[in-house]
TrEMBL record:
<dbReference type="InterPro" id="IPR015797">
    <property type="entry name" value="NUDIX_hydrolase-like_dom_sf"/>
</dbReference>
<dbReference type="InterPro" id="IPR003265">
    <property type="entry name" value="HhH-GPD_domain"/>
</dbReference>
<keyword id="KW-0479">Metal-binding</keyword>
<dbReference type="GO" id="GO:0000701">
    <property type="term" value="F:purine-specific mismatch base pair DNA N-glycosylase activity"/>
</dbReference>
<dbReference type="GO" id="GO:0032357">
    <property type="term" value="F:oxidized purine DNA binding"/>
</dbReference>
<keyword id="KW-0378">Hydrolase</keyword>
<dbReference type="InterPro" id="IPR000445">
    <property type="entry name" value="HhH_motif"/>
</dbReference>
<keyword id="KW-0411">Iron-sulfur</keyword>
<keyword id="KW-0004">4Fe-4S</keyword>
<dbReference type="InterPro" id="IPR044298">
    <property type="entry name" value="MIG/MutY"/>
</dbReference>
<keyword id="KW-0408">Iron</keyword>
<comment type="similarity">
    <text>Belongs to the Nth/MutY family.</text>
</comment>
<dbReference type="GO" id="GO:0035485">
    <property type="term" value="F:adenine/guanine mispair binding"/>
</dbReference>
<dbReference type="InterPro" id="IPR023170">
    <property type="entry name" value="HhH_base_excis_C"/>
</dbReference>
<dbReference type="GO" id="GO:0051539">
    <property type="term" value="F:4 iron, 4 sulfur cluster binding"/>
</dbReference>
<dbReference type="GO" id="GO:0034039">
    <property type="term" value="F:8-oxo-7,8-dihydroguanine DNA N-glycosylase activity"/>
</dbReference>
<dbReference type="GO" id="GO:0046872">
    <property type="term" value="F:metal ion binding"/>
</dbReference>
Length: 348
């Protein structure tokens, strides 16, 4: 189809020079695709370089401790991606002798690999003609064809995947897939797309109907939930503190945090020190002070965390303590990392 040829031609003139494009090694392509989900290339690139230096092969990643993987991932967010990455590396290394599956259908069976990632690996590494559909592809196709089906609806996901599959250049599927993704990222951008110099402008329905800003369509977002976090930062007489591994299936599983008291609303110092958790952790007298005078609001996709950090100086803590050098080695959420940077700079 003419669209595929135009996109590939544009790509060959404008493609970004990225390290994972210089190889067809499925390990590196897989790594880049997992990292770039919900992450801009500029943000993901340093992480890709750090990971490939620390773990040059899937065997190296498989042998690493989860804590080491999470520490290197720190700041990228969506930590389930890192845990799935580590799980799949161990499976490929130990069960498949380090050899990645070579088809879209087999790749889909790996943990953390969905339609998009399987399509990318299969087309780029193995030349299988399966179309990728990510945010960039949704945007290009919805504008070019004037499609207003919501891209985050069941109907939209099916419709766009089927359309994308009919358009793919079967002679060079990997090149075509990268072309349409780059075109969406660099040219047909969400804001201020470059319509005046667009090679597709004469056939673009959204441009003809002045609907560029209206497409693609998304269904309304899920309601954002507010949560109230009170982190207790113990400081012992030996200048040690407490970090705990976050358990369960919620946010930040496997990362470390200060002891946390979650409340239903913003709480006062008096309410905090009278709580059962506080009394259990600090059996003796303490001196407590609020580190951040204004609440820190940490925004995640479906929840906002209204956060206070309470520095608690004490002679006794009812749990294991650690020195600050050990604290720095632990993988922590960005919220904790920013506090540590501020606190340690202030104390030094």
């Amino acid at each position: 189809m003419i669209l595929a040829k135009q996109l590939v031609y544009w790509y060959l003139q404008n493609k970004r020079d990225l390290p994972w494009r210089k190889t067809k090694d499925p390990y590196r392509v897989w790594l880049s695709e997992i990292m770039l989900q919900q992450t801009r290339v500029a943000q993901g690139l340093p992480y890709f370089l750090k990971f490939t230096e620390a773990f040059p092969t899937v065997f190296d990643l498989a042998k690493a401790d989860e804590s080491e993987v999470l520490k290197l991932w720190q700041g990228l967010g969506y930590y389930s991606r890192a845990r799935n990455l580590h799980f799949t590396a161990k499976f490929v290394a130990n069960e498949l002798n380090g050899i990645f599956p070579k088809t879209y259908k087999e790749l889909l069976k790996l943990k953390g690999i969905g339609d998009y990632t399987a399509s990318a690996i299969a087309s780029i590494c193995y030349n299988e003609p399966v179309a990728v559909v990510d945010g960039n592809v949704y945007r290009v196709l919805s504008r070019f064809f004037g499609i207003d089906t919501p891209i985050n609806s069941t109907k939209g996901i099916k419709e766009f995947k089927e359309l994308a599959q009919t358009l793919i250049d079967t002679s060079q599927p990997g090149v075509y897939n990268q072309a349409i993704m780059d075109f969406g990222a660099l040219h047909c951008k969400p804001q201020n797309p470059m319509c005046s110099e667009c090679p597709l402008v004469n056939s673009c329905v959204a441009f003809a109907k002045s609907k560029i800003k209206e497409l693609p369509v998304k269904e309304k977002k899920i309601k954002v939930k507010k949560r109230y976090f009170n982190y207790l930062v113990p400081i012992t007489e030996e200048n040690e503190t407490v970090l705990e591994e976050r358990k369960g299936k919620g946010i930040w599983q496997g990362l470390y945090q200060f002891p946390l008291i979650e409340t239903q609303k913003i709480t006062s110092e008096e309410e905090l020190v009278e709580s059962e958790q506080f009394v259990k952790l600090f059996p003796n007298e303490t001196t407590i002070s609020l580190f951040n005078n204004e609440d820190i609001v940490h925004k995640l996709s479906h929840q906002h965390l209204v956060t206070k950090f309470w520095v608690v100086k004490t002679t006794d803590v009812n749990t294991r303590t650690m020195d600050w050098a050990t604290v720095k080695e632990r993988p922590v959420p960005v919220l904790i990392d920013k506090f540590l940077e501020e606190y340690l700079n202030k104390e030094s």
